[in-house]
Amino acid sequence: MVDIYILDLLVIGLLLLIVTLGSGWIARLPLSFALIYLIFGIFLGPYGTNLIQLRPDANFLEKLTEFVVIVSLFSCGLKMNRPLNPVAWGATIRLIGFLMPISIFAIAFVAHFILQMNWGAAILLGAILAPTDPVLASEVQIADLEDKEELRFGLTSEGGLNDALAFPFVYFGIYALKDNNWNNWFKQWAVIDLIWAITAGIIMGIIVTKAVVWIDKKLQQRRPADELMEDFVALSIILLVYSLTEVVNGYGFLAVFVAGIIAQRSYRNPEKHHSQLEFTERIEKLMEVGTILLLGSLLRLPQMQQFAAQGLIIAGMLIFLIRPLGAWISTIGTGYPQITRYLFGWFGIRGVGSLYYLTYALGEGLKDYLGEQIAWITYITIVVSVILHGISATPLMNLYQRNLTIRRQKIVSTTGVDQN
């Protein structure tokens, strides 16, 4: 009898071959790669062929999703192609400064008053589900370094930053769960987990990246590295920045995003960061396959039925009300076309980042019924997001691109100036 492990390799190999060779056709369909992986994961789980018999614990999933997210955040940073000033990053500032807090506290409000969670658990759930996903949102994010379009830039930078800046609120929820008396820990949270950790993340992202790039340049002048190994500099930056930032109690997620921005601006040869971007995106895509396959295989019908109503309430409110309304409020006065504001509201894709924060919270003591409740609400929300956004991403972005082209043509015809 053939070993299950060998059959797993066979099926995954076939999946990779299908999605790779068929990527040109898949890109035209109302399907995302994440949705395909999720369906295959369910098919390979206990409700299908039962080939994936692995039941990873929270610690394994935490480490897996952690690595996927840091690679993705570095990749997002490499795509940031604008000057570092508030005007150029206006969309990002609004999405992070207004939309993310609105999302966190609106989810917490629903969880507290409708699902009867205490405020600590409700804020924790809001922090887990508020970040948009930098891994699954490739269909609506910047495709290359020359892409300067506002919607794509805003969604890419938001995915890079809110996965990092949700951490203070995750800590807030965990502290509140452990101790209802906020006076015992609030000052420490504000100083250490908010001010210090964010500041350290930014500083370490800059310093460590500049140091690695300086060493790289000096050594390359003396003896160039092997071409096959050169792109591993990107991976070394990711791991060094992340680990050293965590050592000083900073936010490693924020640091690797900053590292991507600094790395992109530090090499005079544009081919260097193009190559690094391609390399990190390949790692990201490969890890995405494994993560979403595992998620699909982990889904269990009894638990999903038990928490279906709660999960659908949160997912529905988040996707159809909280995110769209929050995005509309956050972009008041920007002058963005209505379709841009609508799509900022729609494309709040949830995925691997939320899985990471969930497993982190489970490792920090979230357990029993509350742990099950938050876990399955999170799983259900991610599944709903993957399905809805996976189906809608291609047609909506095609519509948006046509609208953008028409607007540019009107500007050219009336002013004679091509703003492309």
Automatic annotation (TrEMBL):
Keyword list, A-Z: Antiport, Cell membrane, Ion transport, Membrane, Transmembrane, Transmembrane helix, Transport
Gene3D superfamilies: 1.20.1530.20
Ranges of residues in domain Cation/H+ exchanger transmembrane: 17-398
GO molecular function, a single term: antiporter activity
Major subcellular site: membrane
Cellular component terms per the entry's GO annotation: plasma membrane
Keyword Cytoplasm: no
Topology with respect to the bilayer: Multi-pass membrane protein
InterPro entries: Cation/H_exchanger_TM, Na+/solute_symporter_sf
BP GO terms, sorted: proton transmembrane transport
UniProt entry tagged with the keyword Phosphoprotein: no
TM spans (from-to): 6-27, 34-52, 93-115, 159-177, 189-213, 233-262, 307-330, 342-362, 374-400
Subcellular localization: Cell membrane
Domain of life of the organism encoding this protein: Bacteria
PANTHER family listed in its UniProt record: CNH1P, NA(+)/H(+) ANTIPORTER 1
Protein name as annotated: Sodium:proton exchanger
Provenance organism: [Phormidium ambiguum] IAM M-71
Organism phylogeny: Bacteria, Bacillati, Cyanobacteriota, Cyanophyceae, Oscillatoriophycideae
